[in-house]
Amino acid sequence: MSFPPAFLEEIRNRLPLSGVIGARLRLVRAGREFKGCCPFHNEKTPSFYVNDDKQFFHCFGCGAHGDVIGFTMRNDRMSFPEAVESLAGQAGLQVPRDTPVEREKFDAEKRLLQLLDRVTAWFEEQLFAPGGREALAYLRGRGLSDDAIRRFRLGYAPNDGQSLLRKMTGEGYKIEELAAVGLAKKAEDRNEYYSFFRNRVLFPVGDRRGRTVAFGARIMGEGEPKYLNSPDHPLFHKGQLLYGLSRARAALGQGQPIIVVEGYMDVIALAEAGYTGAVAPLGTALTEDQIQILWKLLPAPDNREASRDYSPILCFDGDNAGLRAAARAVERALPLLTPAQTLRIATMSGAKDPDELIRQSGKSAFDAILKQAQPMIEVLWNNALENRQLRTPEERGAFAAILKSKVAQIKDEQLRHLYHNEFRKRIDDAFGWKPREFVKREGFGGGKQGWKPSLPTPNLVRRSPSNGPRIMEKILLALTINHPALFDEFGEEFARLQFQNADYEQLRQRVVEILSDHHDGPLDPEGLYRHLSEAGSEVLDDILSDHTYTHAEFARAHCALDQARKGWVSIWNKHLQDQLQSDLQEAKRRFKEDGSDESLSRLNALRAQIETMNEAASAMDDKA
Questions:
Q1: Within 13 Å, how many C-alpha atoms sit on residue 496's CB side?
Q2: What's this model's pTM, rounded to 2 decimal places?
Q3: Do 140 and 78 touch, CB atoms closer than 8 A?
Q4: How far is residue 481's CA from residue 550's CA, in Å, rounded to a whole number?
Q5: The pLDDT of residue 1
């Protein structure tokens, strides 16, 4: 029994070899490959290697070699048809039969791939030809080296609408083939074809194996549309592919994260900065298929290092469009989440994109963005909390209902249950609600379990009595680093502080020094982080950790400045109250010892200060 070659190729593409083999034996990462003990002969020292990029396994001990189909045949003792049918089931494919029609289709697609590769080479030639001088200057002006331009096979489509068509038809390709892959388009008013891409910089889009299947094209000056992408065709479906995908698989083996950004230039800029796992959707919002592709890049759960977070990171632009794109991606990912499949979200500050940030502030600035990437549960919580005061039962009920609706979208039962419990715990803690008790609800089938809430002001700053000063110091540092603009208002108070923790105190002094001496306009968070990270990032990582934000959500970089300002005032007032109480206890002790008029005056003055502060806080609460 024979099968269409295109179908067998699809099986190999859909099922990473390490995933199939890793389900049967233990594999460990070895650079860009995996290794383990060979299942085909007895050995104690691993000599069995699996290479996902090249789609083969090889044992240096016994010589066993093959692809995913060959492994299944040999390991599971199956015939070729049985192995193919088994793997097709795993890949979610229906098994077709090889026919002359299927064989003809495969040969036609192979020819189209050859055409696309030849066109890619021709676009490259045009970029470095005299006619591509402006395009080459544009790319160099965007900070790309000639080496990067060649590695990503960037090119230029001349303004002449016929030169590509003449060249390819002269090499034996048909105009209908050029039209089939979106390179040629027929004029509406006459029987004539012209090039789809003209006077634009070209970005070849590769499939999972890196073979060119489409192009993205950018205009060099002003005009619309800024980007032009190949239409869908038999080899290319833009919602089922990602720019940079073939490189991302190799990047995982080098310890790099998978980072999803918005544009082609972002991918290239990140790759140039060392983030070779960067990918981008192709002119559309991130789709469910693309999210699943990201997860398929990851090794099987049993083959993941416990100390490493493999979750792909979404890092879209900091403008409103980028924030909306991230929100849509989160919504689409929710039903697909499992304990082994999740995402993290990194928020860019301001209207910047990764390409611009790296060019202006360097790799360390982007490192700071990635370090603050949030897991899905934090993103859902913060999105629901945004722009809500939560002062009334109705507002709090709406907040809880939004979270409940989000959790309900998670199809994995175990994960949905864990999310539900975590959000319930946070809501109880934030609103000061008492533990659940059995309460009879008249008219609702009494005996149901419900909340017996008290309704104090939401406690969105969680305090720990045992390490209160340390937490306060961390929060104030996080606030200042993530929102340097606060230093204009509170810098004098921050400079007068004396932290108990020696590492935090040293960092506080460095922050004051940098922000006090910076005269070229206000520093943004990335700029301040870059200055601070020069002296090491261990303490910074501690300050900007989830532990800090658990106690103070408003200290996160993505929170609005007004929200951060209110948080600062809240923390500062608590600090002053604690300081005054400490001074009051010392004054009481001193007056008890000497009974002097001076000690009594000091004691009364402190009591008056505390009373004044309490009255001011009460007035603020009434005003709120």
A1: 6
A2: 0.64
A3: no
A4: 17
A5: 54
CATH fold for the domain made of 5-91: DNA Primase; Chain A (3.90.580)
Give dist(CA 41, CA 64) in Å, integer: 9
> Which amino acid is it at 467?
N
| Rg of the chain, C-alpha, whole Å | 31
Q: How far apart are CA 467 and CA 548, in angstroms?
A: 12
pLDDT for 460 equals: 44
Question: Distance between CA atoms of 215 and 183, rounded to whole angstroms?
Answer: 9
Q: What is the pLDDT of residue 433?
A: 52
Instruction: Supply the pLDDT for residue 582.
Output: 75
CATH number of the domain located at residue range(s) 101-236 in this protein: 3.90.980.10
At 450, is the secondary structure helix, strand, or coil?
Answer: strand
Asked if residues 566 and 554 have their Cβ atoms less than 8 Å apart, the reply is: yes
pLDDT value at residue 461: 40
Given a contact cutoff of 8 angstroms between Cβ atoms, the answer to whether 375 and 419 are in contact is no
For the chain, the domains span: 5-91, 101-236, 245-380, 389-439+455-460, 465-623
**DSSP single-letter state for residue 42:** -
- Would you state the CATH architecture of domain 245-380? 3-Layer(aba) Sandwich (3.40)
**CB-based contact 273:358 (threshold 8 Å):** yes
Q: Position 436: which residue type?
A: R
Burial 19-51 (b: 16+ CB within 10 A, else e): bbbbeeeebebeeebbbbbbbeeebeebbbbbe
**Helix runs in 467-534, H state only:** 468-482, 487-496, 502-517, 525-533
Q: How far apart are CA 352 and CA 346, in angstroms?
A: 13
To 10 degrees, what angle do helices 413-431 and 393-408 make?
A: 170
Q: Spell out, as residue ranges, where the chain has pLDDT lower than 70.
A: 1, 97-98, 253, 349-351, 432-469, 518-522, 534-537, 611-624
Instruction: Please report where in the chains the tokens 């990582």 appear, as a residue.
Output: 541
Return the pLDDT at 200. 96
Q: Specify the length of the chain in residues.
A: 624
| CB-based burial, 579-602: b 16+ in 10 Å, e otherwise | ebeebbeebeebbeeeeeeebeeb
> Both tokens of residue 115?
């055409």
pLDDT of residue 436: 41
Q: Strand pairing partners for 552?
A: 461
pLDDT of residue 522: 61
CA nearest neighbour of 277 among 294, 301, 289, 290: 294
Q: Closest Cα to residue 262, out of 221, 183, 196, 321?
A: 321
Of the candidates 177, 168, 225, the residue with the CA atom closest to the CA atom of residue 198: 225
